[in-house]
Amino acid sequence: MAVIRAGFALVARDLRLAARVGGSGTLSLVFFLMIVALVPFALGPDLNLLSRIGPAILWLAAVLATLIGLDRLFQADEEDGSLDLMTGAPVPLEGVVLAKVLAHWLTTGLPLALASPLFGLLVALDGRAMASTALTLAVGTPALSFIGAVGAALTASIRRGGLILAVLVLPLMIPTLIFGVSAAQAATGGTVPFLVPLAVLTGLTLIAAVVGTVAAAAALKWPE
């Protein structure tokens, strides 16, 4: 019970810090909007083409926007010594990682999923496509946060490690991107039922939650 309370306290702490500093959550939304707004200019005024690839544009923008501020997930705590206290606390380090990733998703992934129907208007999505894309983003973006946490843990002690982090985690995010786009497109028609890629996407998120939490905790312990 004490572990659960400590986890909720850590989530609340990170949420307060995010609200006080601003930063990654707002920047992710702005970056998300920039990508979604610029791609139609590159493709031209073909609304049929935009509506077909709209879910892919939103998902690709979400993957890239998730990387904003991800390098600071553990680095800020490493710099001010908080991470040493967390490592030595009686709470398992896996619980600390889980709480920090949850806070990151609440400030980054969840706002992206909630804003995707509005941004879907820029790529000519209809109501059904907007709803399905928002659902897949809500299910799949936690996987992106957990995968990113592994890279963030590996680069926590490296200054300006954002580029290294992106190189490490982007290839691992590709399966989530593929099945997220497949699920969103299946909802608007296709030979594959919507629930099949959605179930695979849910499974990827659960696997990423387990493997990512354990791997990130191991990476944080490794320098010791």
From TrEMBL:
It comes from the Bacteria. The chain crosses the membrane at residues 21-43, 49-70, 102-125, 131-156, 163-188, 194-220. It is a multi-pass membrane protein. It is found in: Cell inner membrane. Its main location: membrane. Keywords: Cell inner membrane, Cell membrane, Cytochrome c-type biogenesis, Membrane, Transmembrane, Transmembrane helix, Transport. InterPro entries: Cyt_c_biogenesis_CcmB, Cyt_c_CcmB_bac. Required for the export of heme to the periplasm for the biogenesis of c-type cytochromes. Belongs to the CcmB/CycW/HelB family. PANTHER family: CYTOCHROME C BIOGENESIS B-RELATED, HEME EXPORTER PROTEIN B. This is Heme exporter protein B.
